[in-house]
Amino acid sequence: MDIIKVGICGTVESSDITVIIEPNPNKGIEIELDSSVEIQFGEQIREVITSTLLELNIENARVVANDKGALDCVIKARVQAAAYRAAGSVDYKW
User: What is the mean pLDDT of residues 44-50?
Assistant: First the structure.
């Protein structure tokens, strides 16, 4: 799946995450993470974001994530929704 525009999903509520995905002109996956639990879980959050993108066959994307303590399942769902929006796709493979 190719990222062609900006896709956004999520809120800034407690236990949620806002995910913004946009095309990455530098190629590869770049993640900018701001998290209230980054010291404890930053590596895991980045892993969930990266693995979710790779499951969707996305190899080039810039991700900005503002986490407020979201569980892995919430992170994955937000990344999926933002990715489909950023790809302009309605061919959902949940």
Answer: 98
The pTM for the full model equals 0.93
Which residues fall within 8 angstroms of residue 91, CB to CB, at 6 or more apart? none
Contact between 36 and 70 (Cβ < 8 Å): no
> Where are the chain's structural domains?
7-87
For residues 23 and 45, what is the distance between their CA atoms, to the nearest angstrom?
20
The Cβ-side half-sphere exposure at 28, using a 13 Å CA radius, reads 3
Helical pair 38-55 and 72-87, crossing angle rounded to 10 deg: 40
